[in-house]
Amino acid sequence: MANAPQLVKHLQNFNFQDLFLELGWSQSPDKIERQFAVDGENYTRRQIAQLSGVVVFEILSPDGKIPEKPLRKKIHAEISKSFHENLLIFLDENRSQSIWLWVKREKGKQELREHDYFKNQPVDLMLSKLVRMNFELEDFDDEGIRRRLSLSPANCAIRSILKKLPKNSLTNFSRNTGKSLNLLTVLMTNATAAGMLR
């Protein structure tokens, strides 16, 4: 069963592997850090989770910094040769900054999306973004056709509750960390009570 305080803790600690497992993703069978080259530089990728054919990778640069956007696109293109459906989390060496990159596919179109998350940032906005991103990754195939695979229970539950909230309600909560946690707890508790989370 997904646990709201645990989700918050994993995000705050940059423990993204446990975050995805808590959200209902599966553990990746390949846990080895692997090197790959882009523009003559060696980068490191590590699989941390997978779901419905989508693989999540943490990406580290040789200089310990997050690459600029043009280079992130090239890295995405390189990894997509072997793992067509993917989510890339670019990290700095201190694990205090991250940029999440994925592709939204809909109606035959592809749109590269990014979202940054830094330590000490309010977690509610990142969690709501993660749920939406989870939906985008799971719900459409290469041609932009809606998949028949079901969303993970946690994702379905939180998404259905988020849709009922007033617009910008999560943004308003981001000004107060305590209220952010309370809102998230309410979301998860309601979903659990409805039997929607495992």
Description of the structure:
By secondary structure, the chain is an alpha+beta fold. 40% of the residues lie in helices and 25% in strands. It has helices spanning 4-12, 16-22, 69-80, 123-139, 153-164, 169-173, 177-193, and strands spanning 34-38, 41-51, 54-60, 86-91, 97-106, 109-118. A six-stranded mixed beta sheet has the order 1-2-3-4-5-6. Strand 2 and strand 3 (54-60) form a beta hairpin. Helix 4 (123-139) packs across helix 5 and helix 5 packs across helix 7.
Provide a brief overview of the structure.
With 198 residues, the chain is α+β, with helices and mostly antiparallel strands. The protein is 40% helix and 25% strand. The chain is built from seven helices and six strands, in the order H-H-E-E-E-H-E-E-E-H-H-H-H.
Structural class: alpha+beta
Radius of gyration: 17 Å
What's the tally of helices? Answer: 7
Strand arrangement in the largest pleated sheet: 1-2-3-4-5-6
Q: What number is the mean pLDDT?
A: 75
Let me know the number of strands: 6
Give the helix/strand layout:
Blueprint: H1 4-12, H2 16-22, E1 34-38, E2 41-51, E3 54-60, H3 69-80, E4 86-91, E5 97-106, E6 109-118, H4 123-139, H5 153-164, H6 169-173, H7 177-193
Parallel strand pairs: 3-4
Antiparallel strand pairs: 1-2, 2-3, 4-5, 5-6
